[in-house]
């Protein structure tokens, strides 16, 4: 009798789980069919990631955007192209200007703005130099190029004795 009761309970459980899993399978298939007929869940996830990447600017990414040639080349570029404004030089103004900009998914520099800087002439020079920069290597997220927000400090220091 105990054996028959055990078999009866096992059959009931199997029947319950079989019906539950079948219902779950049909309900998820119908949900996917309503969402995008003909697309697999992986394709839908990729499409969603693509639409997010088009409209979102990242600050943290798998691979950050970088100046062609690396940071050493960027310092060299800044050293060659930054001209100390005459007015600031003659007034003895020194500052570290923080510039924020976005490197697009194509490597272009856009939306350049000053985050911190005291003197307008030094701020304008920093903006000018950043706008002269060549295209960067874009940031990547999930092996796709994405826009990334960057911040660079540019220091304006007078030589000692001035």
Which key terms come to mind for this protein?
single chain; 162 residues; alpha+beta; 3-stranded antiparallel beta sheet; two-stranded antiparallel sheet; 5 helices
Task: Briefly say what this structure is.
The chain is an alpha+beta fold and 162 residues long.
Query: How many distinct helices?
Result: 5
The major pleated sheet works out as: 3 strands, antiparallel
Low-confidence stretches: 14-36
Fraction of residues in β-strands: 15-25%
Helix % is 40-55%
The whole-number mean of residue pLDDT values reads 78
Count the beta strands. 5
How far apart the termini lie comes to 104 Å
> What spatial form do the alpha-carbon principal axes imply?
elongated
Give the structural class: alpha+beta
Radius of gyration: 30 Å
Side-by-side strand order of the widest sheet: 2-1-5
SSE order in H/E notation?
HHHHEEHEEE
Oligomer: single chain
3D architecture notes:
The structure is a single chain. With 162 residues, the chain is an alpha+beta fold. Helices cover 49% and strands 20% of the residues. The protein has helices at residues 2-35, 41-55, 71-81, 86-91, 120-132; strands at residues 95-103, 109-116, 139-141, 144-146, 148-156. A three-stranded antiparallel sheet has the order 2-1-5, covered by helices on one side. A two-stranded antiparallel ribbon has the order 3-4. It starts with a helix and ends in a 6-residue tail after the last strand.
């Amino acid at each position: 009798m105990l054996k028959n009761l055990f078999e009866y309970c096992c059959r009931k459980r199997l029947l319950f789980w079989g019906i539950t899993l079948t219902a779950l399978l049909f309900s998820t298939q119908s949900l996917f069919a309503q969402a995008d007929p003909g697309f697999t869940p992986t394709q839908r996830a990729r499409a969603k990631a693509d639409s997010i990447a088009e409209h979102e600017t990242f600050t943290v990414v798998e691979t950050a955007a970088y100046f062609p040639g690396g940071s050493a080349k960027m310092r060299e570029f800044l050293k060659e192209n930054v001209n100390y404004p005459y007015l600031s030089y003659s007034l003895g103004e020194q500052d570290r200007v923080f510039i924020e900009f976005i490197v697009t998914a194509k490597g272009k520099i856009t939306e350049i703005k000053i985050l911190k800087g005291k003197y307008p002439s030094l701020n304008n020079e920093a903006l000018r130099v950043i706008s002269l920069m060549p295209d960067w290597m874009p940031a990547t997220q999930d092996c796709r190029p994405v826009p990334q927000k960057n911040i660079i400090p540019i220091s304006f220091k007078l030589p000692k004795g001035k």
